[in-house]
Records
---
Amino acid sequence: MKPLKNISGLSAWLMRISLLIMIMALFSEEFMKFELNTLSFYISTAFIVFAVLLFSGGFFSAPLTVVSSLVLFALSVINAVIAFNGELELTFVCWILIASVCTYFLTHGNK
């Protein structure tokens, strides 16, 4: 069976939307606390800002998509390393999944 190449644009947009929703679900509570003296606030802010930039990069230029996916990839890998405790847990898998989606946009841009 041949792959459906006609819907590759739709799949890229579904990944953008899903990534944005997932990051908002993970970090919106910490972001809304607005505690400027905590590191978790700045990490949450970075995730939210770069997820919005990756989403909006689909409407604008490829460098915006590539740079924001690079930052999100790096943050996700760092969080995956922190979450890994020798066992396969949902938190670790979630960070690896986010890093995988970011890798796609890092390598494909807006194609």
---
Amino acid sequence: MDFWMIERKHLKVDLLEIFSALDNIQYKYDWIISNADIFYPQLENTPKEIKDRWNRSALLVSGQELTDRLSNDYIHFLTGGVLSAVPLGTKVEQVNKYVPHWEIENFDSPDYQFQTPLTQLEILCYDGYAWVIICESDFSEFVKEKLPLAQKPDDYYRSLQKQTAIE
């Protein structure tokens, strides 16, 4: 498993910019969204059905729905969230066989496992200040090529320490 981190302040349109850089990868999967701390930037304009649906502890959405909600500024990931890419057409019944749970203690370790056996890629909103892409090694070169600001966790933390020292 490979881990890539990118600071949110480097992204003009946050998660949508990651999707775009990765050739609109959101449309190639359905997404299990869990452990999400969601903010509704347009609280008054966000339809009640969307707020009710996105307030669940785990949610299965299409890439189209995810894009629409982000593009229309109906949702924004604040300090956390796990987006697990699963095959297109995955049924809720398949997801319900597993309890999506992200284990922070295994983050960036060889023991890290995706939330479900269906998961093929994960994108995490990490403490609100970074996005983390977790992928198999064969996808890593693509991430590195398409998101040049993405760094391995050790490099990312070193660069944060340098920034803090300068400030």
